[in-house]
């Protein structure tokens, strides 16, 4: 059985060559390269002027930065407030910021919902929260005396305490004081008689 031949797709260069080859006959059928005419500026300036491309002007690149959300602003303000506070004061500030009636939990929740489809907004919100955790970690490192509580490194303890403070937003208002006391005990800095 004979194999079927594959058909090649015609390209413009082949079809042009075939048409040119059919029209010409004999020795003149060979294709000759066309001469390229270029104008060069003579060294003495007597020749034709060369064509120079128009000077390109560099357009300034405009970058549109999105405005920070209210949640980002609140988180960054909280991180700034924690910078010089003692650990028990810092934990109380975080717990107060995340009480059930406070503005921060509502703003963070709304910002997370809006930021889900937008990668830039989501990263900005995560970065702002991370600033709060880093500020808390620095406070823990400054206030450590001897062995860290629970045998945890400062970064893990900061993450745990921040998560516990954020969870206070979902507690009933009557349980907030007890949860704050628990957070202070976890940090190893519970004030006597609190």
Identify the notable features of this structure and list them briefly:
single chain, 194 residues, mainly alpha, 52% helix, 0% strand
How would you describe this structure to a colleague?
This protein is mainly alpha-helical and 194 residues long. It has a domain at 83-187. Helices cover 52% and strands 0% of the residues. The protein is built from 7 helices and no strands. It has helices spanning 12-23, 70-82, 87-97, 103-115, 119-143, 154-167, 176-187. Helix 3 packs antiparallel against helix 7 (176-187) and helix 4 (103-115) packs across helix 5 (119-143). It is elongated and about 95 Å long. It starts with 11 loop residues before the first helix and ends in a 7-residue tail after the last helix.
Please sum up the structure shown.
With 194 residues, the chain is mostly helical. Helix content is 52%, strand content 0%. It has a domain at 83-187.
Q: Topology of this protein?
A:
Layout: H1 12-23, H2 70-82, H3 87-97, H4 103-115, H5 119-143, H6 154-167, H7 176-187
Helix pairs in contact: 2-4, 2-5, 3-7, 4-5, 5-6, 6-7
Number of helices: 7
**In percent, how much strand structure appears in the residues?**
under 5%
Distance between the termini: 97 Å
Principal-axes shape call: elongated
Give the strand tally: 0
Low-pLDDT segments, ≥5 res: none
What Rg is obtained from the alpha carbons, in whole angstroms? 37 Å
Helix content: 40-55%
Task: Give the H and E element order.
Answer: HHHHHHH
Question: Averaged pLDDT, please?
Answer: 77
